[in-house]
Structures are given as C-alpha cells and as structure tokens.
Amino acid sequence: MANTLEQWYASIPTVTRMYLTLTFAVTVGCALEVRAFESRRRDSFFLSFRSLTMQIFYFARRAIDRYDGARANETLTRRRFASHSSIVGPRAQLISPLNVYFNSKLIFQEYELWRLVTNFFFFGSLGVDFVFHMFFLSRYCRMLEEGSFQGRSCDFFYMLLFGGCMLTALAPFVNVQFLGTSLTFMMVYVWGRRNASAQMSFLGLFTFTAPYLPWVLLIFSTIIGSQPVTDALGLIAGHAYYFLKDVYPDMTGREPLATPGIVCALFGAQTRARAAAVDVRGVETVAAGRRVGDANGEG
C-alpha cells in the first residue's frame, strides 16, 4: 500500500504535485492548530479556575492571618499564585487560518505579503467538503497538466499565476478571504472548454457535455448552502483565460498570454523540450507547404 501511494504521488505532474502538497499541508496544519487551540482553551479554563481559587485563598489568608509570620506567609502565597498564573498565557501559533487568509489591509499596510499566496492553499476544516474539493483539484488539475498542457508545465504554471492574480484583484470587491476554491473552479472551466465533446454525468441523474460542468457544480453548491460568489469568481477567471488564450489569438493573430521567459526558466528541461517540439512542428509545416506548392506548380 505504501509503495502504491508513493508511486501514485511520484506519477503526478510537477505543478499539480506541488499545489496538492501545499494545499494538504496548509489545510491540515490549520485544522490541527484549531483543534490544539480549542484544547488549550479548555485547559486554560481549568487553570484559570485554579488560579482564581488561589487568589481567593490569598485574600482570605490575609484577612484572618494575625500572627507575626503573616508577612512571610503572604510572600509565599504570592509566589504560589504567580507560578500558577504564569501557566495561563498566550502561546505562539505556527500556522492558523488567521495567519493565511486574504486581507488587503494586512497585506499592503502591514506588509504581510505571504497572504497573497497562502490563501490559495486553505480549503476549510477537515470533512466532506475538504475531500470534495481535493478530489476535484487533483482530478482536473492533473488532467489539464497531462492533457492540453502535456510537456508544458511552465504554461500550466503561468495559467495558475494569471488566475491567481486576477482572483486577487477581484477578492477585495466581494470580501472573499480564501481563493483556493475559486482557482479550482477556474481549472474546471478551462478543462471543460478544451474538452467540449466529453460526456459527463451528475450523480447518475442526467448527462451533459463538459463545458456545462462548472455551471452544474455552481448550482449544486448553491443548493447545499455554499457561497456562490467564490465559485463565480473562478468562472470569471477561467473564462478570461480561455478567451485570451484560445479565442483571441485565433481572431487577431496575437497571443497576449504567451508565457514569459522568466517563468519558462523555472522549468528548464521542459522548456527545451517544448522549444524542440515547436521547431519540429514548424519544420514539418514548412515541408508540407513546399510539397503542396510543388504539386500545384506541376499541375
């Protein structure tokens, strides 16, 4: 079982594996911290009750103690009370939802810049909703990177970077603190558009084609009580990427979302393989054009 899990994890493409790992680590870490905080809060209640008891004992002892050794006993009692009170105090939190959520004021005024990234890795408490989102994230993130982005992880990473920047720009206007769900919906939207003929089924009740999948999920999330705004942000970002990457270049011949060289440099080997594949396709295209021209000339 362990070997099978290792093989499955090793077979995941680079960007998908990185995103899944960070998402799982941040979400589980926050969930464990919340449970630890609740446990510490219960412990603090009992310790505070004990400290209150010691304080009452201290004042009662001062009221009834009339002997010569009262001052010494008072000092001893104060020390005991101080030792018990020092147990109850703030403890440092390494990671918690309060440390990772998106807050524009904390980012731009307090310079807590990590919140620009960490809010994409938190998917709420551990439960059915977390499993649901992790399933869709792992499935469609991997299918995109292994499908239309096969051998082009740098382009896939740039798609996520574009989506993250767009979602970050929209988040302050709709008061959304965690954008991981929105980024997942963006990937589902792009996958559905690029696999328009794929047939889908929802709980075995009805079938539909892949482009309607994000809309079906949006309606289902609204029915079960989730906030549709978060999912709608993902649809907006997904449609913007699909239009600028797949539709607009065919209309104008210009590609505004070409992956920058600095992003491709992060995936050096894959970038060279990608460039070689482009060269091969270019050579084949030129050769085919020459053959067609020669055939027309002979005709």
Describe the structure.
With 299 residues, the chain is an all-alpha fold. The chain has a domain at 102-259. It is built from 13 helices and 2 strands, in the order αααααααααββαααα. The chain has a two-stranded antiparallel ribbon. β1 and β2 (206-209) form a beta hairpin. α8 crosses α9 (180-194), α8 (153-174) crosses α11 (228-252) and α9 packs across α11. The radius of gyration is 29 Å and the shape is globular. The N and C termini lie far apart (65 Å). Mean pLDDT is 74; it is low at 35-50, 52-61, 66-92 and 275-299.
In short:
The protein has 299 residues and is an all-alpha fold. The chain has helices at 2-11, 14-64, 70-85, 97-100, 104-108, 115-118, 128-146, 153-174, 180-194, 213-223, 228-252, 261-264, 268-298, and strands at residues 199-202, 206-209.
Task: Offer a few descriptive terms.
single chain, 299 residues, mainly alpha, two-stranded antiparallel ribbon, 2 strands, 73% helix, disordered C terminus
In this structure, how is the largest beta sheet organized? 2 strands, antiparallel
- Quote the distance from N terminus to C terminus: 65 Å
Instruction: Give the radius of gyration.
Output: 29 Å
The average pLDDT is: 74
Shape summary: globular
The secondary-structure element order is HHHHHHHHHEEHHHH
Q: What structural class do the secondary elements suggest?
A: mainly alpha
**What's the number of helices?**
13
The total of beta strands comes to 2
